[in-house]
Design brief:
50% helix; 11 strands; alpha/beta; nine-stranded mixed beta sheet; globular
Length: 274
Amino acid sequence: MIDGNIAAEILQKVHRERPLVHHLTNYVTMGDCASITVSVGALPVMAQAEEEVEEMVSAARAAVINTGTLSPERARAMLLMGVKARKMNIPVIYDPVGVGATTFRTGEALKLLHEIKPSIIKGNRAEVAFLAGKTGAEIRGIEALSGAGEPLEVAKLLRETLDYEGVVIITGPVDLIYDGKRTARVNNGHALLPLVVGSGCMASSVIAAFAAVERDYFRAATAALATLGVAAEVAVQAAGNKPLGPAGFKTRWLDTLYFLSEEELCGKIKLNIS
């Protein structure tokens, strides 16, 4: 069972333990990912060089791999970091940003998936469909134009291709989390979230922070996404009648997450678990 109390307990544990989260993420959102990691109570590190990623991830309790600004050098570093983390039983949150947009990106994304075997895979419907080998998905840059199927169908398809226990997340107006047995739908959030550049990348950082302290990665991912959604709702509510654009909302969202209370989380969380 996952509810507001469980989410609050995991969030409090992150604050108490302050786990180190190693990111090999994209250049566009690196600073924002570091900021939200701090806001949720964890510690970020962004080491990028092939020469040090294995050593750095060995000191971390969770890792994020994000293919947003991919290059051959970064792909090699991601593989080194991910394989090392897997060997040490450190959870890897894999965000295959833009998979399907180009031949190079798709090939590297699939290689990372199969060789790293990430604990949690997070993407939009089109990205997850491409990883699963489903035809019909359409993507432009990093934007999904077509999801090639209903989210649960796509999540199940990818999960069935994995030869290990992994959690699949499909983000959207309703976030879906699936681990092969359990399905969660997170109904929290706000329409301003997709307008914040990097909000999806930032979500991976918070999922990683939660997974660092909660070994049931389905529970960790569900609680993290619900926490982010509630924080977005509280941030907008607190603004009252003051108009908010993407930049102002992002600042309020980060601060609200930092100060988010157990009462707010328990009172506003909206989950469907099956």
